[in-house]
Design a protein that fits this description.
The protein is α+β, with helices and mostly antiparallel strands and 413 residues long. It has eleven helices and 20 strands. The strands form four sheets. Strands 1, 3, 4, 6, 10 and 12 form a six-stranded antiparallel beta sheet that branches. It is elongated, with a radius of gyration of 26 Å.
Length: 413
C-alpha cells in the first residue's frame, strides 16, 4: 500500500463541541465528552497500516494532546480499540495518546482492523478553545510502518548511547526467542511508549477525570443493559449492609444507590443492630415494602458490626456477597461490571473495584485506583476495601465474620 494517495478526511463535531468563531481557536469544548468524527468515504473496507497527520493547537499552555480512537463492531456493538500497543491493535479495548503537544503536529503510525466503522478524535478537557486541521490518513506498507517506527525510536536515543545499546541487545534477543511476530510486538510497544513520553506529563483535576472517564448517560445505560441481557445464568449478588443509628439522608442514598443499579439481579440484605433511633427501623420498613428485593432483619440487641454483618449474611441467598457500608454509594453500573467479570470467568472468588470519597455536597475526591491482585500488599493493608464482592461459599467456609475484630472485620475475613 506504500505510495498510495492520502485519504483526506472531513472533520465533523460528534459530541460536546461548539463553534467559537475565533480566528486562532475556532472550536471550544462544550461538555464532558468533546469528540470529532473523522469521516472517510468507506472506512469499513480499509485494513492495514496507516500514517495519520493533523495539526492541533489549543489555548491550554500544558502539553495536552487529542486522543485517537477507532470504532469496531464486536457482537453487534461498537467498541473502542487500542491503536497500536502490543499486538498491533489486536483487540484490546482502550485509547492511546496521539502524540501532539500544545500547538503541535500529530504524525503517527497505527494499524486499522478490518471492519472498523469510524475514527474519532477526543479533545482533552483541559483545552477550552482549540484548532484541529489538515487531517490526512495515508495507507502505508508494513515495511514502511516498521521503518517509520524504528526511525522515531532511534532518533529519540541519538544522545543516549547506553540506552541505544540496551535497546539493540533487547531487540536481538526478542527476535531470537520469538521471531518476527515478537519483534513486531516489541517495536510497536516501544513506539507507543515513546509517543506517550514525548506527550509529557499531564496533571488534571479529579473533577476533570470524572467528567472524562466516569460521566454516564443514557447510551451507557443502554449498552450495559444490552450486555446484561446477553448473560447466561446471571449471578444473584447479595448486598450485605449492617446499620446502626445511621443518619437517614445517608442511609437513603446508600439504599437508593443499590435500587438504581442497571443490573437487576441483586438483593439488599440489611441487618439493623438495634438502633436506638426508631426512625431507622421505620425507614427500613418503608424500603422493604417498596422493593421485594430488600430484606431487613432488626436485631433484638446491639452486637456490633461483625455480629450485625453475620445477621445480614443469614438472610442472603445469592451466590456472591457484596460488602456495603450504610453510608456508601454505588455507581449505577457497579454490579453489572462485577457480574460481567463473573460471567466471563466462573472461577472467580473475589472481585474488587476502585473507590473514591464523596462529600456531603456530592463532590467526589481522594480516588483510590487499585492495582491488580497483590498478596504482599494485602498482608499489610486491606487495599481491597469497597467495593468487594466475595463468593458466598468461601465466606461460609471461613465461618463468616469473627467477633472481636470490629473495625477490621472485612480485612480479617
Amino acid at each position: 500500500m506504500a505510495g498510495q494517495t492520502p485519504l483526506r478526511a472531513t472533520l465533523e463535531p460528534a459530541t460536546d463541541i461548539e463553534r467559537a468563531f475565533e480566528a486562532d481557536f475556532p472550536w471550544r469544548v462544550g461538555g464532558s465528552r468533546p469528540s470529532f468524527s473523522v469521516v472517510f468515504d468507506d472506512l469499513s473496507s480499509i485494513e492495514g497500516w496507516f500514517r495519520l497527520r493533523l495539526d492541533f493547537s489549543s489555548d491550554d499552555p500544558r502539553r495536552t494532546a487529542p486522543i485517537l480512537r477507532t470504532m469496531h463492531p464486536i457482537g453487534g456493538t461498537s467498541r473502542a480499540l487500542q491503536i497500536g500497543g502490543a499486538g498491533a491493535g489486536a483487540g484490546h479495548g482502550g485509547k492511546i495518546d496521539a502524540g501532539a503537544g500544545h500547538g503541535g503536529k500529530v504524525d503517527k503510525v497505527f494499524h486499522i482492523l478490518h471492519g472498523t466503522t469510524s475514527i474519532a478524535i477526543d479533545i482533552p478537557l483541559t483545552a477550552n478553545g482549540f484548532l484541529i486541521d489538515n487531517v490526512t490518513l495515508t495507507p502505508i506498507s508494513q515495511i514502511e510502518a516498521a521503518a517509520r517506527m524504528t526511525a522515531k525510536i532511534a532518533g529519540s536515543l541519538r544522545s543516549e548511547p547506553e540506552a541505544r545499546s540496551t535497546l539493540v541487545n533487547r531487540t536481538l534477543g526478542t527476535a531470537k526467542r520469538g521471531g518476527v511476530g515478537a519483534l513486531r510486538d516489541q517495536l510497536v510497544a516501544d513506539y507507543e511508549g515513546l509517543q506517550r513520553r514525548q506527550a509529557g506529563p499531564l496533571t488534571i483535576s479529579y473533577d476533570a477525570w470524572v467528567k472524562w472517564h466516569d460521566t454516564l448517560d443514557e447510551s451507557d445505560e443502554k449498552a450495559v443493559s444490552d450486555l446484561v441481557a446477553r448473560f447466561d445464568d446471571p449471578p444473584v449478588i447479595s448486598v450485605v449492609m449492617p446499620t446502626y443509628n445511621t443518619e437517614l439522608k445517608w442511609l437513603r442514598r446508600a439504599i437508593d444507590s443499590v435500587r438504581e443499579q442497571w443490573y437487576p439481579h441483586w438483593e439488599l440484605c440489611i441487618a439493623d443492630d438495634a438502633s436506638t433511633d426508631p426512625a431507622v427501623a421505620a425507614l427500613l420498613a418503608e424500603y422493604q415494602e417498596l422493593d421485594s428485593r430488600i430484606r431487613v432483619e432488626i436485631r433484638p440487641a446491639n452486637g456490633h458490626i461483625s455480629a450485625a454483618s453475620n445477621t445480614a449474611l443469614d438472610i442472603a441467598t445469592g451466590d456472591y456477597v457484596a460488602l456495603l457500608d450504610h453510608d456508601d454509594e454505588l455507581r449505577p453500573h457497579a454490579l453489572a461490571l462485577v457480574a460481567n467479570a463473573i460471567v466471563r470467568n466462573r472461577d472467580l472468588d473475589i472481585v474488587y473495584s476502585d473507590e473514591d470519597k464523596i462529600s456531603t455536597s456530592g463532590k467526589r475526591s481522594d480516588p483510590h485506583f487499585k492495582p491488580r491482585f497483590n498478596y504482599d500488599l494485602l498482608l499489610g493493608q486491606n487495599y481491597l476495601s469497597h467495593l468487594t464482592v466475595i463468593r458466598r461459599s468461601i465466606i461460609d467456609a471461613a465461618g463468616g465474620f469473627r467477633l472481636g475484630f470490629e473495625g477490621s472485620q472485612d480485612f480479617d475475613l
